[in-house]
Amino acid sequence: MQRLLTGLQPSGALHIGNYFGALKPFADMYNTYESYLMVVDYHALTTTRDPKELKANIFNAVRDYLSVGVDPSKAVIFQQSQVQEHTELAWIFECLVTVPFLELAHAYKDKVAKGLEANAGLFNYPMLMAADILLYDTNVVPVGQDQKQHVEYAREAAAKFNNVYGETFKEPRELIQESVAVVPGTDGKKMSKSYGNTIPLFGTKDEIAKAVMSIVTDSSGEKPKNVYTIHKLLKSKSALGFIYEASMGNYKTLKEALIEDLDALIAPMRAKRESITDDDIRRILKEGSDRARVVASVKMATVRKRIGVAL
Ligand code: AMP
Ligand code: TRP
User: Fold this and answer.
1) What is the rounded distance in angstroms from the CA atom of residue 129 to the CA atom of residue 11?
2) Which residues are catalytic?
3) Residue nearest to atom 10 of ligand 1 (CA)
4) Among the listed residues 119, 127, 132, 123, the one whose alpha carbon sits nearest the alpha carbon of residue 81
5) What distance in Å separates the CA atoms of residue 173 and residue 161, rounded to the nearest whole number?
6) Architecture of domain 193-272
7) Å from CA of 18 to ligand 2 middle
8) pLDDT in tens, 173-187
9) Residue 147: nearest ligand to its CA?
10) In terms of CATH, what superfamily is 3-180+278-307?
11) pTM score, two decimals?
């Protein structure tokens, strides 16, 4: 079986764009692999210094994935900071690559381009991510388009190590999920937290209704485009054809139909989310981290031998 690994950013509340663009495609395919799902809390440290917020976001990241149906008995769900081999291997990779090479990484480059001072953690970010991936002999890494370069850095780190110390790491490939269209927000632009145009993924029915009612509709056409585009993610074209025919031009009725269909999808996930306790998550992460550590420590024993520090 091929091995899959991905990192979950512990960051704030999700919207339905995240669900259709990332969580659902992941939930639909992770169990055809031997899957590792890791909360990347040490990566989050490059951008947050609020311990309360970080802790809450770690719980939430796991809760989100469990709520959309990821089964902890079918994937190793673990916490990056609890497997110390990650930071150890990152150091070794950092000693193999050059500063100009890391200067080309997007996360760092974008920060500097904005005139901001990057911390050294952000600069080294791609080598920690390389360690995350390579410790587990990962074959595929499902990520968004924006992370493609980071997976290339992981391949590069593997090649450099193998070249200097002998064949040790597998070169992984990214799995970019592009089948799903961009989900529009309530203003018709891409749905995004930073545009304030979102429909919350785990919102109450009232919150969903409020967001849907605010969707911008064109005053001409018979089919309100933004409403229809979201509706298409929930119902077949033929089922929608019937509804949109019967209520042609009646935007309020069409929005109400969308609210019902969204709530039918979200209500069970919302209920599941509420049933998961912090203790459930602690237990899942503890078991997952223990399992991950077994794999990572075997790999690190080889690495230590190869580089000459095992006496
Ligand atoms: P972000 O937090 O914006 O980087 O989004 C996390 C993931 O959710 C990305 O990898 C995207 O694939 C997905 N995503 C975010 N917004 C949308 C959207 N409006 N439509 C489709 N997918 C999205
Ligand atoms: N950098 C990734 C992101 O921002 C998160 C990440 C960290 C990751 N380590 C990883 C993703 C390993 C895949 C594999 O989304």
Assistant:
1) 17
2) 111, 190, 193
3) 144
4) 132
5) 17
6) Orthogonal Bundle (1.10)
7) 15
8) 999 876 567 899 999
9) 2
10) HUPs (3.40.50.620)
11) 0.93
